[in-house]
Amino acid sequence: MTIYGIVAGGPEVLLPDLTQETIDIWIGCDRGCHYILKAHLALDLAIGDFDSVSEDILEEIKQEAKSVIVYPSDKDDSDLELAIKAVDLKAGDQMVFYGVTGGRLDHAWVNVGLLKRLAMQGFQVKMVDAHHKVSFYLPGHYTLYRQSEDYLSLLPLTAKVTGVSLTGFKYPLKHAVLTEGSSLSLSNQLIEPYGSISFQSGILMVISAKEL
After folding, report:
1. Residue 102 pLDDT more than 90?
2. CA pseudo-torsion sign 19, 8, 91, 164
3. Which of 23, 67, 91, 210 is most exposed, with minimal Cβ within 10 Å?
4. Nearest alpha carbon to residue 46 among 14, 71, 76
5. pLDDT at residue number 50
6. 39 and 16 in contact (C-beta within 8 Å)?
7. What is the pLDDT of residue 138?
8. Is there a single domain that holds both residue 167 and residue 68?
9. What are phi and psi of 12, to 5 degrees?
10. Over the chain, what is the mean pLDDT?
11. Are residues 112 and 159 in the same domain?
12. What is the largest CA-CA distance in the chain?
């Protein structure tokens, strides 16, 4: 199993401490390459059109990265989508995305769609920033462990998610139906050391959020 860390060019202030992340291969998208190098991490692949970095920074990226792929600014795919396509994912591999939140809303929304698509293909994916950890789940049974007093929100990424049951939560559910746009499953919390989520159909995005 390989864990890929893909860093996009979202606001630097929202990045977690990348040096504390458990990653096997670091991939930078455009300005995300600069973030990886600033953290003194090995930049395994730099990819993008690099329209958001200066010539000096681009030169540093080209010198430090093990591999560099430069695309023209006029292209059909975003830098993040190009990075995803460049990875030869195998069964069991994980992808952790940084710098994909907090910037332009249209970019963030597309990023969620890209990760949803990966989850539908059976890959383990999550988004991480300084305040949130976002995971994507297909139907099944899952165990979650409490991390401080973080809020947990379950958001449907399909028209509805059926058979939703929660145990160990402040607000438990039993065979509930969550519909897209509903606030029923917003801002829940684990009250036990661990809890469970199970559901029968649909796709769930689970957001662990710190109190701001």
Report:
1. no
2. positive
3. 91
4. 71
5. 92
6. no
7. 96
8. no
9. -60, -30
10. 93
11. no
12. 57
Residues 141 and 111 in one domain: no
Q: For the chain, what is the radius of gyration of the CA atoms?
A: 18
What is the per-residue pLDDT for 116?
Answer: 94
Q: Which two tokens stand for residue 55?
A: 């010539």
91 vs 2, 21, 64, 123, 126, CA distance in Å? 10, 21, 30, 7, 16
Give 126-153 pLDDT, tens digit per residue: 999 999 999 999 999 999 998 777 899 9
**Residue 158: predicted pLDDT:** 95
Residue 141 has phi, psi (to 5 degrees) of -125, 130
Of 114, 130, 146, the domain-final residue: 130
Give the DSSP per-residue string, 86-134: HS---TT-EEEEES-SSS-HHHHHHHHHHHHHHHHTT-EEEEE-SSEEE
Least confident of 16-25, 98-107, 131-140: 98-107
Q: How far apart are the first and last CA of the chain?
A: 34
The strand pairing partners of 155, in sequence order, are 205
Mention every residue, 6+ apart, whose C-beta is less than 8 A from residue 20. none
On whether both 80 and 114 belong to a single domain, the answer is yes
Residue 69 three-state SS: strand
DSSP 1-55: --EEEEE--S-GGG---GGGS--SEEEEETHHHHHHHHTT----EEEE--TTS-H
Contact 165, 173 (CB under 8 A): yes
Q: What's the pLDDT band for 89 if we cut at 50, 70, 90?
A: confident
